[in-house]
Amino acid sequence: MELNLLPTHQHNQIIEWQRHKRHGIDRKYYLEKSDFNLARHLAEVMNIFYEITLQISTPGSARLSNIVVFIDQITEHLSTAISGTKYPPVLRNACQVGLKLTNKYYSLTDMSPLYRIAIGMLVS
């Protein structure tokens, strides 16, 4: 399942609607095609978080060992978004912040006794 944005024809309708002065929208608040493209790219990047949230939210499926796999998937996904040229610089910068935060929490799991038990790294 994916996050869905408005269909493209609705984007065009919104842009056309804004052109009419009678609606009283200041020009600085107009949405342009680049705004819709950025929103589409953002939805692509954020989709993994949506999918993982659905998996974790399913009763009985949130195991600590799965969480580590999910963190690895998020890290790989954000790293790919950062290193590629598919996304605009503003979104790649946001992904860098997200990757730093992910790495911070991932490093905290290494210290957790529950994590060590789940992964089988507990030293007697």
Task: Provide the fold topology.
Layout (H helix, E strand, L loop, with lengths): L7 H11 L14 H25 L6 H20 L5 H22 L2 H7 L5
How helix-rich are the residues, as a percent range? 55-70%
Structural class: mainly alpha
N to C succession of SSEs: HHHHH
Mean pLDDT: 80
In what range is the share of β-strand residues? under 5%
Q: Compute the gyration radius: what is it?
A: 20 Å
Written description of the protein model:
There is one protein chain. By secondary structure, the protein is mainly alpha-helical. The protein is built from five helices and no strands.
Short description:
With 124 residues, this protein is mainly α. The chain has helices spanning 8-18, 33-57, 64-83, 89-110, 113-119.
Descriptive terms for the model:
about 120 residues, 5 helices, about 70% helix, mainly alpha
